Amino acid sequence: MEMLPFILATVFTAATPLLIAALGEHVTERAGVLNLGVEGMMIVGAATGFAAAVLTDSSVFGIIAGALAGMALSAVFALMVLVFATNQVATGLALTIMGLGLAGLIGQGFVGQPRAAIPPVQIPLLSEIPVLGKAIFTGDFVFFLSLGLIAFVAWGLNRTRFGLLLRAVGESHGSAHALGLPVKRIRLVAILFGGLLAGLAGAYLSLIYTRFWSPGMSAGRGWIALALVVFAGGHVWRLVLGAYLFGGITVAQLHAQAGAIGLPSQFLSALPYLMTIAALLFLSISGRKGAGAAGSLGQPFVPER
Amino acid sequence: MSFNLALVPRRDVSLIRQVLTPVVALLVALLIGGVIVWLMGRSPAKAFDVFLREPLTDPWALQEVLLKSTPLMLISIGLIFCFRANRWNIGAEGQFLLGGIFGGGVAIATHGLTGPWILPLMMLAGALGGMLYAAIPAMLRNRFGISEILTSLMLVYVAELLLDYLVRGPWRDPKGFNFPQSVPFTDAAQLQPLFEGGRLHAGFALALLAVLVAILVFRRSLFGFAVRASGEAPRAANFAGFNEQRITLVVFLISGGLAGLAGMIEVSGQVGQLRPGFGQGLGFTAIIVAFLGRLSPVGAMLSSLVIAVLLIGAESAQVSLKLPFDLTRFFMGLLLITVLAGESLNRYRLEFRKEAA
Amino acid sequence: MGIAFWGYFMSRTGVLAVLAVSLGLAAPAVAQEKLKVGFIYVGPVGDFGWSYQHDEGRKAIEKAFPGRVETTFIESVPEADSERSIEQLARTGHKLIFTTSFGYMEPTLKVAKKYPNVMFEHATGFKRDKNVATYSAKFHEGRFIIGKIAGKMTKTNTLGYVGAMPIPEVIAGINAFYLGAKSVNPDVKIKIAWANAWFDPGKEGDAAKALLDQGADIITQHTDSPAPLQQASARGKLAFGQASDMTRFAPNHILTSIIDDWAPYYVERTRAVLEGKWQSQDVFDGLAKGKVKMGPYVNMPDEVKKLAEETEAALKSGKIDAFMCPVVAQDGKTVECKGGDRLTDEQVVGMNFYVQGIEGTIPK
Questions:
Q1: What ipTM does the predicted assembly reach?
Q2: Which of B90, B330, B344 sits opposite A101 (nearest CB)?
Q3: Across residues B63-76, what is the average pLDDT?
Q4: What CATH number did the domain enclosing A230 receive?
Q5: Do C92 and B57 touch (CB under 8 A)?
Q6: Quick check: is A257 in a domain?
Q7: Which end of chain A is flanked by fewer CB atoms within 10 Å, N or C?
Q8: Is B217 part of any domain?
Q9: How far is CA C36 from CA C59, C72, C89, C274, in A?
Q10: Which pTM was predicted?
Q11: Within a domain: residue A265?
Q12: Residue ranges of E strands in chain B
């Protein structure tokens, strides 16, 4: 029982970068845009964030810079798919490759430099609650920010006029356009938000999760974030569940090893992906056709006029 | 960002324009790349020489270019069928891996045997493995309406883990000191070099054959027409009597089969055993190749060569100019961006408007 | 059109190839002939672990023979597609080539056959040829020392070990560490978590956290990034550095580091080539030859520091070994003692069992 809060805290930190990046991509995809460049934006955020933190000697500034760098890269994506109406799959992949290269170039001079930890935030009173209190109410500030972001995205998408418009644009850009909605402007906001969060997730990796920069450190987490968005099938709560489940499985696997319990680790690692497909299947069989993806996801939008 | 920009479709696009656009795109990318090289304090002229001229003029490097282009060509030719039909198979990497696993499985099962039948059997198995794996996202789309984009992507990870499991567990070389790898294949299970001193093998000929067949299918066959029609105007295609679901399945089987064949060729011709990481992301690079080649078979052939030249050139650049590999990656992404933008400008005209769209 | 096109192409390349060759021949006549030494790295130079340390060795060569050698490296070379990169170095006039990962074994041998006048050095492999030497380091000696430190310093009697992959080198390291710890603390237990990667900072860190959660109060690692050390430090627990001196990542919680130092070996082998004395060989040494070094012993009482220093000296002189007989395997059987009073190098290189007292099985 003593170690439970620690285990939960480990799960939360493992899940937080996935959750943040997935929240951003979730919004982008709700607007009908598929950005496969999450991995690229994430690693550029990690490199830029770390470089900025070292140069200014402020981790907080680094995290802001990382988020902005992710957003800058997403602006390139927006320019391509919105102005030039290029194929989103190809553009997203280009973004990932570009990002991996760019991050390597940015981070060149910063390899192997250590950074001090950002002191954890303790919420008074609540952190005194036994077991859960310690796990949930003691953490780094980005963890709390991510909780805020969950609420913000859920509220923004479902309870605001802008969220309604955004979803309408995603469902059918043709009809939205016919109704006079500014399709491109709304999608621009969604893409930039996705980039901002991917960059933030990257900066979290290099400044909080591991606290140093090294090339390739995102290690496929951007792609996992994309899988989580599919798993969510349009619901923020399922996204959150998926992220913590994924973090939980990773950590559980390591605990099983440390506790000398033999388990085929590859099967456990494959579980999240198989579960995602199973979830899609379940949704589809239970009659919800199209299982969650926005109606015009991935299609270029060229208004006829 | 101004939203007063609008795309207006061009009525007809001249052939010169079509040919020149990718060239101009390449030049723009080279210009930007050159500036970056210059900013890094190296000579851009020297960099172009190393990246682009050397791999094409040195017979050894040329063979390596052709070798490197082989899997890219095979996979991208298959992907063209999917992408033309507006089906988004982005899991070619997984199908490539399954092809290697099936083909390599035959090699392991027949270890110690000789005979000219082993290689053809491996090829069949490889293609079959890729096809079976590609059928999963196709069936999920057909039967349950699940987006193939993400299922095919997720199956890549499952394939990686399957390979990992096999080479650490049941297929591990008992004499391999516990390293995660299978037994080394015997000569009977390896594609042999065509020329003395080089490494080019018959896989390249197969890739060229695939290009040729694809050209014929798209130009001459009803199926090729159906694929294009299904992509461009699904409703019209329906009226014309083409079964959407059947097209989905067939284009996935074609691209999966070719990716699987490529995987088997890579395992047999290059690696010589099964080991984690033999995919090297070639399945993803091939997507870029397909788009660089503007989804045409000839274009895919040429762009696999261009990318192979860049990859080989990148290695020489590390050796002779000490330019980091990251630069090449950045450049490849950049190149794709300029080509996509160029292609868009081919189809549309940019027009400035006063009011927002 | 096809044949004419290819014919044209081939003849052109022929001419250019001749041009290139003549230019290539002209160049060395002007400059003083330098020995070109090449390196193939499996990771980026900046991984700060394995490849980084090899690159430090490369830099040492340049420093040791100013003006006489020229070095080149190709980084992030995937093991499955390394033959071309190795040949690329061989054919561009590199006379001595270091391939620094186990997976380069077969490709190195293949290329070596084609270039009999080029000398190859393959790290951690076991297949040699006339022009292919192999070399490795007895990292387990360092692990024996840190095992003793950990055994003395632990309060929970539980030690955590982050492993990369269950290959013999890592297994031998775990055994040496455990034997060291047990020799000073019979109640000590070891918990092992596998990252299944040499380099994935996030996963390595998570593995360390899982071990800490399971009650380990000292962390050691056989992966490349400083993440496990950092995670231990963040919880106020002690840990060791790996591959390089990692003091700056956790100055108050690091006990010492096991440092790979390839520089002396690389300089020695380069000198051998320069003097025309290079021969194929297999070298497996450690503290004695300086290939394995220990970082400063810090954050521990003087008596533990003294114990560590004495152990280091005894290992260095060869008086003791990490695997002194009798070595008892997990299943209770005593391992055949082939090296007199200790296990032989071969037995260590191929080690495929846990010693008695370690729980769990080696994963598949």
A1: 0.82
A2: B330
A3: 94
A4: 1.10.3470
A5: no
A6: yes
A7: N
A8: yes
A9: 13, 8, 9, 10
A10: 0.84
A11: yes
A12: 5-9, 348-352
